[in-house]
Every structure is written in structure tokens, then in C-alpha cells.
Amino acid sequence: MRVWLIIALILVALVATFALQNLSESNVRFLGWRWDVPTTFLLLITFIVGLIAGWILAACGKRRQGKGETKTEEAKSAGK
Fold first, then answer.
1. Which of 20, 66, 68, 80 has the fewest CB within 10 Å, making it most exposed?
2. How big, in percent rounded to 5, are the helix, strand and coil portions of the chain?
3. Higher-pLDDT residue of 12, 76
4. Nearest to 24 by CA among 47, 42, 44, 49
5. In 10 A of CB 9, how many CB atoms?
6. Prediction pTM value
């Protein structure tokens, strides 16, 4: 348990160091809009969008897996 706590504290320290060293602003252009945002905020938003996309893709994969299993079960019961 202590090993995970130490790893978590090290990761928090690394993320905090990264955030503090990347406070400069970046220009972002998207569909005609333009923003000046801190680089850390930009990376955080990109990370969150990636997490959401990963969860959606994982959920779609589980649905397809579930549908395939029901068809296999139906085929097995029809053969009995």
C-alpha cells in the first residue's frame, strides 16, 4: 500500500513541476476562433478529450462484444 502512495506522490510532484514550468501562453485557433491559453491548460484539455474518446471507444467495443456473444449463445441453444 505504501508503494502506491509513494508512486502517487511522485506522479503528483512531476505533474505539478510540469504545470509550473509551462505557464507560458499558446495561441490556439479552431474553426475561426482564436484563444490565448496557458500551455498546461491546453494539455489538460487535450488529455480530458482523449480520456472521453477512449471511454466511448471502449464502450462501443464492449457493446459489439456483447452482441456477438448473444448470437453465439443463440446458435448453441438452437443446435441442442
1. 80
2. 75, 15, 10
3. 12
4. 42
5. 10
6. 0.52
27-71 pLDDT, tens digit per residue, is: 888 898 888 988 888 888 888 898 899 889 888 877 776 665 555
Does residue 39 contact residue 25 with C-beta atoms inside 8 Å? yes
Q: Could you give phi then psi for residue 37, rounded to 5 degrees?
A: -125, 150
Q: How many CB atoms lie within 10 A of CB 28?
A: 13
Per-residue pLDDT at 44: 81
Specify whether the CB–CB gap between 34 and 27 falls below 8 A: yes
- DSSP letter assigned to residue 24: S
- Give CA torsion, residues 11, 14, 20, 26, to 10 deg: -90
Please check whether residue 25 is in contact with residue 37, taking contact to mean a CB–CB distance below 8 angstroms. yes
